[in-house]
Design goal:
heterodimer; A: about 325 residues; alpha/beta; Rossmann fold; 2 domains; five-stranded mixed β-sheet; B: about 375 residues; alpha+beta; OB fold (Dihydrolipoamide Acetyltransferase, E2P); 10 helices
């Protein structure tokens, strides 16, 4: 099978759907001329000049206009430039986009995709490094996908572009250049379906995005010490695949939830709480949560690495759970 | 407030065995509703609530024995609960509860020292009936994990049997058969008997073969009284009445209801009474009195295709008759002809201390003859009123 990058896979998904459905159009800051600040739209340069365009730096206008377009039946795909900047236009999302289907009694559909980069990169500091998916998980009304591979982003994005609900997609900055197998033929990945990336028997590790790769690295190292991790990529956070996680915990009896966003009240707490409610009798150890330390992201590279979770945190927690 | 006490079913009953509670603590019960099942060494009965009210406290545990008169539960109004609790703690303080192979549970043990075990380990321990206190924990801080339980199971293969608590009836059977086996000197004489005639006659009278045998046997026992006797405390009592014990196979074990004054009954009466007794034995509806005072016992395994067996005495009786399967066989009859006859083995077990071998042979001979030629006896088929 051919290998393409995460960014290329994303571009393919959008292009294929734009060719099929002429209500789809996409815009944001520096997308049309530059191809996105992290190159997400590089493969779209020069395509559909009227349906791929740049906007001024005004998130209120970007998200608000997407809402309006979606309300009249268009399918806007909006890039939010940095996940951190969702906050600058947050009321359009949390007060309007997330509520409108509910408040109209479901009379209208709202097909709208917000997508863009999140997560830590080289010394991007406190305002350009955040992962804020938990906030959108907390407030009801929007679905969340967080693909970790080229294959997943293409399959999930194509599903999102045919959905009737608003969907937000977080793409980790470090993933755009990563390559992976993507089939030529068309495929879709349903929302709410996790993938077991690696089977194991001692501890289940639930993660998403960049932390899936950290978990797989940790699993590889621990394997040498006779500790077997089962790594699950949730792929979508709303809805999340409870059944797959419970089934895995019933097998391994231990759970680590690992995410890059802050540990305090991060979505790992929601997973942990659900599992102790529904699979209490299968637990051999407290559920461990791994997340960023509870501070804004430092600029200093050393400090950035200290605050951000990685495979080492997973290895330490895994050993702790097993009493090693 | 009303105390439910261990009842007394019969004169000889001094303790009762709680089989099961039919109501739960806190439940409301109406007067006359069944509250629990109690068995004595003879019989089991449902105990009926004498009043209406809430079942405030259950003190008597299922599977345990308590002396007659011991309070086993308290029924009353809800506001009397505190008082009931006080009452129960008083009973506890002067406990005369006959504890039997009481099994300690994890809960009892963890009162003293908390066992650290994961929820998964606890679930597995529950499912496999393992005491957590026996398992070594390997997790952080000595926590017992599911792996510890599984490895414990590997090293201590699960019992492939289950310990059954003996019912009151089974305990009686054990006691009486042991007594019989260790005290009496039991011998068995066996003969093959031609049932063709008796079968024909009983069919004519529309009664069972067993009825026919009891009828014939009762007449003989009246004449050969030594076989219709009790030997107890160095004393032989020969009875002038014939009470036939009928060994009945029930779900709860062997029961021997007694057909009283069998010698006074005609075929039809015997038939009706034995059907009634055996069916009530199977449905646990016999009265205590119906299980006592047999003078001779019969046991029939023929219908389950046993041909020959050596019964054991039902003390203090001195003889018991075993009846085998009746089956058609080629037989040599008068003047060396071969004919098809309905044959069966009779086994007479007797206490050799009381009955000599020749006496037993004579008894069996008379019985065989009467069965083979029952007409003279059956002509007088009438009960004595």
């Amino acid at each position: 099978m051919r290998n393409i990058s995460y960014a290329e896979a994303l571009g393919e998904a959008i292009l294929e759907e734009m060719e099929r459905d002429d209500t789809i159009f996409t815009y944001g800051e520096d997308v049309a001329k530059q191809g996105g600040i992290f190159g997400a739209y590089k493969s779209l340069l020069g395509k559909f000049p009227n349906r791929i365009f740049d906007t001024p730096i005004s998130e209120e206008v970007i998200y608000g206009s997407a809402l309006g377009a979606a309300l009249v039946g268009m399918r806007p795909v909006v890039e939010f430039h940095f996940a951190d900047f969702l906050f600058t236009g947050i009321q359009s999302i949390t007060l309007q986009i997330e509520k409108i289907r509910y408040m109209t009694g479901g009379q209208g559909k709202l097909h709208l995709v917000l997508r863009g980069p999140d997560g830590v990169s080289n010394s991007a500091a406190a305002q350009h490094s955040e992962s804020i998916e938990t906030i959108f998980m907390h407030i009801p009304g929007i679905k969340i996908i967080i693909p970790s591979t080229p294959y997943d982003i293409k399959g999930l994005m194509k599903t999102a572009l045919r959905s009737d609900d608003p969907i937000i997609c977080f793409e980790h900055k470090s993933l755009y250049a990563t390559k992976g197998e993507v089939p030529e033929e068309e495929y879709f990945i349903p929302l709410g379906k996790a993938e077991i990336k690696k089977e194991g028997k001692d501890i289940t590790v639930v993660s998403m995005s960049r932390m899936v790769h950290e978990s797989l690295r940790a699993a590889e190292e621990l394997e040498k010490e006779g500790i077997s991790l089962e790594v699950i990529d949730l792929r979508s956070l709303v809805p999340w695949d409870k059944e797959t996680v419970i089934r895995s915990v019933q097998k391994t009896n231990r759970l680590i939830v690992a995410h890059e966003t802050w540990r305090r009240a991060g979505w790992g707490a929601e997973i942990a709480s659900t599992i102790q409610e529904e699979a209490f009798d299968f637990l051999d150890a407290p559920i461990a949560r791994i997340g960023a330390r509870n501070v804004p992201m430092p600029f200093n590279a050393l400090m950035q690495n200290f605050v951000t979770p990685n495979k080492e945190n997973i290895i330490i927690e895994a050993k702790k759970l097993l009493g090693r | 407030m009303y105390e439910i006490k261990m009842p007394k079913f019969g004169l000889t009953m001094d303790k009762g065995h709680i089989e099961r509670w039919l109501k739960k603590e806190g439940e409301y019960i109406n007067k006359g509703e069944s509250l629990l099942e109690v068995s004595s060494d003879k019989i089991s009965n449902e105990i009926i609530s004498p009043i209406s009210g809430f079942l405030l406290k259950i003190w008597g545990q299922e599977g345990e024995e308590y002396p007659v008169g011991q309070t086993i539960a308290i029924v009353g109004e809800k506001q009397e609960l505190d008082q009931a609790n006080k009452e129960v703690s008083e009973i506890k303080s002067k406990e005369i509860h006959l504890k039997q192979d009481y099994i300690k549970t994890d809960r009892d043990i963890s009162k003293d020292s908390r066992i650290i075990a994961s929820p998964s380990a606890k679930r597995l321990a529950r499912e496999h009936h393992i005491l957590l206190s026996q398992v070594q924990g390997s997790g952080p801080g000595g926590r017992i994990t599911s792996e510890d339980i599984l490895s414990f199971l590997n090293h201590h293969p699960k019992d492939n049997f289950k310990v059954e608590k003996l019912s009151g009836i089974r305990k009686t059977i054990i006691e009486r058969l042991s007594q019989s086996f260790h005290q009496a000197i039991t011998l068995t004489n066996i003969t093959e008997v031609d049932f063709t005639q008796l079968k024909k006659q009983t069919k004519l009278n529309q009664v069972s073969i067993t009825t026919g045998i009891i009828f014939v046997l009762s007449k003989i026992l009246l004449n050969l009284k030594k076989f219709n006797s009790h030997f107890e405390n160095e004393q032989l009592k020969e009875y002038n009445i014939v009470n036939i014990g009928l060994a009945v196979d029930t779900d709860r074990g062997l029961l021997v209801p007694v057909l009283k004054n069998a010698h006074l009954l005609d075929l039809k009466n015997i038939q009706e009474k034995i059907i009634d007794l055996s069916s009530r034995a199977r449905t646990n509806q016999l009265n205590e009195g119906e299980l006592y005072q047999s003078t001779f016992t019969i046991t029939n395994l023929g219908m389950m295709r046993t041909d020959l067996f050596t019964p054991i005495l039902n003390p203090p009786e001195v003889a018991i008759l075993g009846i085998g399967r009746i089956i058609k066989k080629p037989c040599i009859v008068d003047e060396d002809k071969i004919a098809i006859r309905e044959m069966a083995y009779l086994s007479l077990s007797y206490d050799h201390r009381i009955i000599d071998g020749a006496d037993a042979a004579r008894f069996l001979g008379v019985l065989a003859q009467s069965i083979e030629d029952p007409e003279s006896l059956l002509m007088n088929n009438k009960g004595v009123e």
